[in-house]
Structure formats: C-alpha cells, structure tokens
Design a protein that fits this description.
single chain, alpha+beta, five-stranded mixed beta sheet, globular
Length: 86
C-alpha cells in the first residue's frame, strides 16, 4: 500500500538508464519528492551501477529540467542520461 504522506512518482527511463534498470517505466512511493530522493530510491531498487548513472541524469518534471538534488519533482518524470551527438 502506498504511503499516504508520500508522493507516488512514475518514472520513464531513456537510453542507458533504461538498460541499467531493465525497464522503461516504473513507480516509486517517495516520502520526499525531490531529485535526491528519486536517485536514492533508484539505487536502492536497482543497485550501485544504476544509482551512479541516475546521479548523472537530468530529471524532466513537466517542462522543468532538474539536476539540483533539492529540486522538487512532480508525479510523472523522465530520467534522461547525458547524450552524445554531433
């Protein structure tokens, strides 16, 4: 059962982070809906490799691109790893 004081967050993963966690979407119940709490939850669920990659990712929450640990996130976010291109 979800924590009634927390926030249910659905995460969509892309590129390398999707490979690291082994899925494209999943949900977390976070007591504190921040970038830091999400990154911690990912590491706890998927291990150190996924956690390290999550630290490099930008969180897209609505129209906001977030990287700061204290930034508040919404109920639906995208996790975007650094992309190479040219």
């Amino acid at each position: 059962m979800a924590d009634p004081t927390g926030t249910h967050v659905t995460v969509s993963y892309f590129a390398a982070i999707a490979d690291a966690v082994g899925c494209r979407t999943e949900s977390f119940d976070l007591a504190d809906a921040t970038v830091a709490a999400l990154r911690t939850a990912i590491e706890q669920r998927h291990g150190a490799r996924a956690g390290a990659l999550a630290q490099l990712c930008t969180v897209l929450s609505g129209d906001d691109m977030l990287r700061e640990s204290h930034a508040r996130i919404g109920a639906t976010v995208d996790l975007l790893p650094p992309f190479a291109g040219g």
